[in-house]
Amino acid sequence: MASTLQESSKLSQFTINGGDWSASSPNLQKNLSVLSPEQVHLAKMLLDMGQSHLFEHWPEPGVDDDEKKSFFNQVNLLNSSYPGGLASYIQNARKLLADSKAGKNPFEGFTPSSNLAKLRGCSSASSAHQA
User: Fold this and answer.
1) At the top level of its lineage, which domain of life is listed (predicted)?
2) Domain tally for the chain?
3) Does pTM surpass 0.85?
4) Within 13 A of 23's CA, how many CA atoms are on the CB side?
5) Are 15 and 6 in contact (CB under 8 A)?
6) Is the confidence at residue 16, as pLDDT, over 80?
């Protein structure tokens, strides 16, 4: 129990971008004692990527703690599944949104094509076999 208190005390002293956690995300700060060191690392990554809104409505420690841990399990899975991790996903999403807002077409320069003729040939051959 004493080591858990010491760990929680250390976690509460983390800083992000030169400030303390309470300045960037007070609700996350209150819940650090609920999180594992790995989850705290993921939280730091999310805050570094400008995702503090994810923690804006977190309840006090002791309320919905299993949901908070489940959230980080999902974050961990997404981070390990996407090439380059969530940081790459967020950067790509921001670029695509900015391009869309600017009216850029991500498919510009591509020529659409279809294998419909080949498919029709296959389906008529199939029909001939069935007759």
Assistant:
1) Eukaryota
2) 1
3) no
4) 8
5) no
6) no
